[in-house]
Specification:
Layout: H1 7-17, H2 22-27, E1 37-41, H3 49-54, E2 58-63, H4 66-77, E3 84-87, E4 99-104, H5 115-127, E5 129-139, H6 143-147, E6 152-160, E7 166-176, E8 181-192, E9 195-207, H7 211-220, E10 224-233, E11 236-244
Parallel strand pairs: 1-2, 1-4, 2-3, 4-5
Antiparallel strand pairs: 5-11, 6-7, 7-8, 8-9, 10-11
Length: about 240
């Protein structure tokens, strides 16, 4: 797996994404109680993990980005929280615990590429779930690419940190709508007093899946009682899949 979410990306992400909304956090109350043990693969800097901990849930996080995990620990410490975190690529995880739930919000699962890797990871998730444990994950389809025939896109966004530092992200995305993936190249630049003090390049590949396609994949991987809810989060339409081990 390509290393993603390094230092500048982590700093940009923390300003741009902040924490999950109360509505998003409360969604999980339908599925878990405070005695359950939850795992969040690709947890990043704790956008969802930390608010769930604040609500009293026991949740472990795993990510292959040391920068993201460092940010997660620091942000949690500011709230007197000490999350249990593992630095590992999820295709390699062999954790000693089994979990009542595995959650992957905001389309993070779609960063698994090629698709064969995604299928292998689903099987790994199943091994880490208790009997009747739940897998919950958000997926989205980039409809703008499909409807607007916009197969190549360039854009720039900027955020300002609490100490007044500007971080600029320049995106260049190329979509293959027939094989259902987008290759995204991003350059992050950090400015202090209008002078670039750091730069960082990143490349990701993001796959997408249609509803019935993913339901069939989950079924093939041995999941059952599969359902899908439509949710609007951060101005993005998500399909939230819920499946039992």
């Amino acid at each position: 797996m390509i290393m993603m979410y390094r230092q500048l990306c982590s700093e940009f992400y923390d300003v741009d994404k902040k924490y999950a909304s109360t509505k998003e956090v409360n969604f999980y109350q339908k599925f878990f109680n405070k005695n359950d043990l939850i795992l969040e693969p690709m947890c990043g800097s704790g956008r969802l993990l930390i608010p769930l901990m604040q609500k009293g849930y026991t949740i472990h996080g795993i990510d292959n980005s040391p920068e993201m995990l460092k940010a997660c620990k620091e942000r949690a410490a500011q709230l007197n929280l000490a999350p249990i975190l593992f630095e590992e690529s999820i295709e390699n995880i062999k954790l000693s615990d089994q979990y009542d739930g595995i959650i992957i919000p905001s389309g993070s699962f779609q960063l698994l590429y090629p698709r064969l890797l995604a299928f292998q990871v689903l099987e790994i998730f199943k091994k880490h779930l208790k009997p009747a444990g739940k897998l919950i994950m958000d997926l989205f389809v980039p409809w703008d690419v499909l409807y607007e025939n916009n197969e190549e896109e360039r854009s720039t966004r900027e955020v300002t940190t609490n100490d007044g530092v500007l971080i600029q992200a320049t995106f260049h995305n190329k979509a293959n709508k027939y094989e259902q993936f987008i290759v995204g190249e991003t350059r992050y630049a950090k400015f202090i007093q209008e002078k670039i003090v750091a730069e960082e390049d990143e490349q990701i590949t993001l796959c997408w899946y249609y509803r019935y396609e993913m339901e069939l994949i989950l079924e093939k991987c041995g999941f059952k009682n599969i359902c899908c809810e439509k949710r609007l989060l951060n101005n993005t339409d998500y399909m939230t899949f819920i499946a039992e081990c």
